[in-house]
Amino acid sequence: MKRVVIYNLKECFESGITFKDLAEFEKIVQDDKKFMGEIIVGFGVFTFSQAKIDKNGKFTLYYDFKTVF
């Protein structure tokens, strides 16, 4: 299972993103082998920023959020 970090989570919620939208986003990331790029959910776009693997082998994906109207 991949861990997902959203850099500007506060902006996400201010834009109207709901927990349901975030769950949909996480499901896409967990299920998709091609998780790099942009994922449109609700009122915004999550853009892949970077990936890291820690010393224990835990895979973390970092995304930026941008509001789209």
Relevant terms:
69 residues, alpha+beta, four-stranded mixed β-sheet, 2 helices
Fraction of residues in H or I helices: 25-40%
Number of strands: 4
Rg, rounded, reads 12 Å
Shape: globular
What structural class should be given to the helix and strand makeup?
Answer: alpha+beta
Question: pLDDT average, as an integer?
Answer: 84
Show the helix and strand layout.
Layout: E1 3-6, H1 9-15, H2 19-31, E2 38-41, E3 44-53, E4 59-67
Parallel strand pairs: 1-4
Antiparallel strand pairs: 2-3, 3-4
Task: Write a structural description.
The protein has about 70 residues and is α+β, with helices and mostly antiparallel strands. It has 2 helices and 4 strands. It has helices at about 10-15, 20-30; strands at about 5, 40, 45-55, 60-65. It has a 4-stranded mixed beta sheet with strand order 1-4-3-2.
Could you give a short description of this structure?
The protein has helices at residues 9-15, 19-31; strands spanning 3-6, 38-41, 44-53, 59-67. It has a 4-stranded mixed sheet.
